[in-house]
Structures are given as structure tokens and as C-alpha cells.
Specification:
It is built from twelve helices and ten strands. The chain is an alpha/beta fold. Helix 10 packs antiparallel against helix 11. It starts with 5 loop residues before the first strand and ends with a helix. The structure holds S-adenosylmethionine (SAM).
């Protein structure tokens, strides 16, 4: 049996303290040490849940000595919990280096899952969620931002970004420019908080809305972009659509896509995606 401690990677709420899961409270109360992105920021959360465990600051630019101190305590048999300011550590937040070093030293790493803004946003956005790409924060400078956006223009998966409120308007305008004003986007703002707002539409219209309502340029924001429609989709044609609709009346999606591919000459994957998006709506 291992005598080393456990490194718990603990998610905390993204705004609403009621989203703290009981297992997170228990882990934070029972470990010997909490490694927090910002100890002052986390003190409110810890006080709310009556957690008196000592804290130490940890971020990915912490010097090697700090990382080493935490690892030594784990190796000496003490358990440590890693938290960030909000949500899931390592998701656009510190923790990667500590978790990687811990695993390399044979220390058990245990996740305590909970809130994560991008997953919460995806779960309520109504965009395809079977395949998605989380891109974190876009670059702050416009040229670099546009280069990244340009590189994603043909990506068919739903794209998810974190964005700062003072940049959201510029970013939407860049997305409209690069992806076309018709591309569907969803803005998920202030999730789990009083002014939670989730709204979607063509990016050109969304940019106009955000420009005209400065409240939309405040708070915390997740931006989701509908993936590019695969080129074949444009070639679906009314006859192929009719064939698929008939097949879907009788068959499960997978079989309908497979048979549809033989009948129409279109790709099975494309028909499967089309069926997923179209079969249950009517
Ligand atoms: N680790 C966090 C998570 O699991 O979501 C993300 C940390 S990252 C430094 C902070 C960014 O996440 C914010 O700028 C915003 O884009 C997004 N975010 C965090 N909380 C949010 C919320 N309540 N509503 C919308 N977006 C949020």
C-alpha cells in the first residue's frame, strides 16, 4: 500500500456557492494543505464552508521550490487539495505542472469534479455537443486573434472560447468578419449568477446587440461558435433529404445513415450528423 498522500484536484463554484459539491467540501476539510491559485480570493469560499485547512499559493509560474515543497509533503504522506479561483483547476487555470510532476513521482491524483464554465455553457447553448473544441482564451491582440480565428474557420466541431468582457465586442466583430456574419454563435454570460444570460444568433446580429447593450460587455463570458458545415452538407439536395427522412421513419439513425450513404452516394458520417441534427426536431 502506498504511503504517499493524495493530490485532490477540486472544482469550486463559478459564481453560485450552492454549486459546491459535498465531496469537495469534505476533501478540503480533511487534507493537510490546500494549494490555491490565490489564497486571498479563496478565503471567502473556505470561510463559507467552515474550512480551516491551511492554504498555500500555487500557480503555474510558482518557482520550482514551491512546487517541490508541495510534492515533498505529498511524498511524506500528507494529502493536498488543489483549487483555482473558480471552476475546475487546469481548465484555463493553474495546476498542470503540479499534476504532471505528481503523476511522474507516482503520487495518486484524484479529481473531485464540479463546476466548469465551458461545460455549463455547452450544456445550455443548444449547439452540437457531440464533438467540440475548447480553445481557451483568444489572444488579446487583434492580429494574433484573427490569425487564430482564421485557422479555425473550417473546423466542423463546436468551438468554445473564454473571453474577457472588454474584448467581447471586438471578438464578435472579428468572428463576423472571418466566419461570415451568418455563422451562429452563443454567448453564455454570468453563468449560475444573478444576471445569467444565454443568447444565440447570427454573429453579425449578436455583435450589434452587444454593441447596443453595454451590460453585455460586463461579467464573465463563454463564447461558442457553431462548427463549419461540412462541404457535403451544401450538396445534400432535396432528393437525398427525402431519402433520409423516409429511412429515419423506419430505422435508427446509424442504420439510416449507412443505408442512406449507399442510396445517395453521400458520406455516411455526414448523413449521420445530418440525421442527428434533423431527426428529432420536428
Ligand atoms: N477554471 C475555470 C472553469 O472551470 O471554467 C475557468 C477559469 S478562466 C481563468 C476564467 C474564465 O472562465 C472567464 O474569463 C470566463 O470566460 C469563464 N467563466 C468563468 N466563470 C464564468 C461564469 N460564471 N459565466 C461565464 N463564464 C465564466
Amino acid at each position: 500500500m502506498s504511503t504517499t498522500g493524495i493530490l485532490y484536484v477540486v472544482a469550486t463554484p463559478i459564481g453560485n456557492l450552492a454549486d459546491m459539491v459535498p465531496r469537495a467540501v469534505e476533501a478540503l476539510q480533511t487534507v493537510a494543505l490546500i494549494a490555491a491559485e490565490d489564497t486571498r480570493h479563496s478565503s471567502r469560499l473556505l470561510a463559507h464552508f467552515d474550512i480551516k485547512t491551511p492554504t498555500v499559493a500555487y500557480h503555474d509560474h510558482s518557482d520550482d521550490q514551491r512546487t517541490e515543497q508541495i510534492l515533498q509533503r505529498l511524498l511524506n504522506g500528507e494529502s493536498v487539495a488543489l483549487i483555482s479561483d473558480a471552476g475546475t483547476p487546469l481548465v484555463s487555470d493553474p495546476g498542470y505542472r503540479l499534476v504532471r510532476h505528481a503523476r511522474q513521482r507516482g503520487i495518486q491524483v484524484v479529481p473531485v469534479p464540479g463546476a466548469c464554465a465551458m461545460i455549463a455553457a455547452l450544456s445550455a447553448a443548444g449547439l452540437p455537443s457531440d464533438r467540440f473544441a475548447f480553445e481557451g482564451f483568444l489572444p488579446a491582440k487583434q492580429t494574433a486573434r484573427c490569425n487564430v480565428l482564421q485557422s479555425l474557420v473550417n473546423e466542423t466541431r463546436t468551438l468554445i472560447f473564454y473571453e474577457a468582457p472588454h474584448r467581447i465586442l471586438e471578438t464578435l466583430q472579428d468572428v463576423a468578419q472571418i466566419f461570415g456574419a451568418e455563422r451562429e454563435v452563443v454567448l453564455a454570460r454570468e453563468l449560475t449568477k444573478t444576471f445569467e444570460t444565454i443568447r444565440g444568433g447570427a454573429v453579425g446580429e449578436m455583435a450589434d446587440w452587444v454593441a447596443s447593450d453595454t451590460n453585455q460587455q460586463r461579467g464573465e463570458i463563454v463564447l461558442l461558435i457553431h462548427g463549419a458545415i461540412a462541404p457535403a452538407a451544401k450538396d445534400m439536395g432535396t432528393e437525398s433529404e427525402r431519402v433520409m427522412r423516409v429511412l429515419l421513419e423506419e430505422l435508427p439513425i446509424k442504420q439510416a445513415a449507412s443505408l442512406g450513404a449507399k442510396l445517395t452516394g453521400l458520406k455516411k458520417n455526414f448523413l449521420y450528423q445530418w440525421a442527428l441534427e434533423n431527426s428529432k426536431k420536428e
